[in-house]
Amino acid sequence: FSKGKSRFIDLNLQGHQVERVKTFKFLGLVFDQSFSWKEHIQYVINKCQKRINILKYVSGSKWGADQATMVILYKTLIRSILDYGSIIYQSACITNLKKLDVIQSQCLRICCGALRCTAMEALEVDCGVIPLQLRRKFLATKAAIKYADDHNNPAYECFQDSFHLYYGKYDEQFKPLVLKVKDVVKNLPKASICPV
User: Fold this and answer.
1) Which of 90, 132, 171, 185 has the least CB density, counted as fewest CB within 10 Å?
2) What residues contact residue 185 under an 8 Å CB cut-off, 6+ apart?
3) What single-letter DSSP state applies at residue 76?
4) Looking at residue 103, what is its pLDDT?
5) pTM assigned to the model
6) How far is CA 135 from CA 26, 58, 90, 142, in A?
7) Which residues neighbour 88 within 8 Å (Cβ) at sequence distance 6 or greater?
8) Residue 22 in contact with residue 32, Cβ under 8 Å?
9) DSSP secondary structure string, 83-136?
10) Residues 6+ positions from 74 with CB-CB distance below 8 Å
């Protein structure tokens, strides 16, 4: 993995040369050699597009499901795909992440029966769905709080006082998630942290 020009390295495992690829799918996430997440986001979009057709089939002003049912279908069939791995791929550039907002907008328009020109904010309010950017932050913070409280989790050590020694000083915008939630976790009473 490299952001700059990658060097070719011959790797052998038990006498067999390891094939060099630009992308690799692992546990449902598509990793690319520059960690841009562009390939993964395109994979997610393609997967969602197939399920959007289900929403279209059950929508209709006279015979289709009501808006509440449509929103539940969206959350179950499509937003669950958008959520999976979002803790990891939220570091993608804004341009790539905006492509996922288009998917949510398209789905909410179908749920509401709204026109194409309807503002995304209006759709989110009408359907009671938060923007994907806030959803990703919520899921990441929830996971970080869970990991910080579990002493048996390998990620627990990242939340200890020595974490800043590995990463130094960060601009607030690019601060690692661990440091962003560290103060929140420290001030939470133990009883309020429940298993997710």
Assistant:
1) 171
2) 144, 145, 148, 149, 159
3) I
4) 93
5) 0.72
6) 23, 26, 10, 10
7) 29
8) yes
9) HTTHHHHTTS-HHHHHHHHHHHHHHHHHHHT--TTS-HHHHHHHHT---HHHHH
10) 55, 107, 108, 110, 111, 127, 129
Average pLDDT of the segment spanning 86-90: 84
**Mean pLDDT in residue range 51-62:** 82
Q: Do 144 and 136 meet the contact criterion of CB atoms below 8 Å apart?
A: no
Name beta bridge partners: 13: 16
Identity (one letter) of the amino acid at 55?
L
Q: In this structure, which amino acid lies at residue 168?
A: G
Q: How far apart are CA 87 and CA 140, in angstroms?
A: 5
pLDDT at residue 157 tops 80: no
16 sits in which H/E element: strand 16-17
SS3 assignment for 155-185? HHHHHCCCHHHHHCCCCHHHCCHHHHHHHHH
- Cβ atoms of 129 and 82 closer than 8 Å: no
Task: Give the H or E element holding residue 38.
Answer: helix 38-58
Q: Which residue has the higher pLDDT, 160 or 106?
A: 106
Asked if the model's pLDDT at residue 196 lies above 50, the reply is no
Average pLDDT rounded to a whole number, residues 175-179: 63
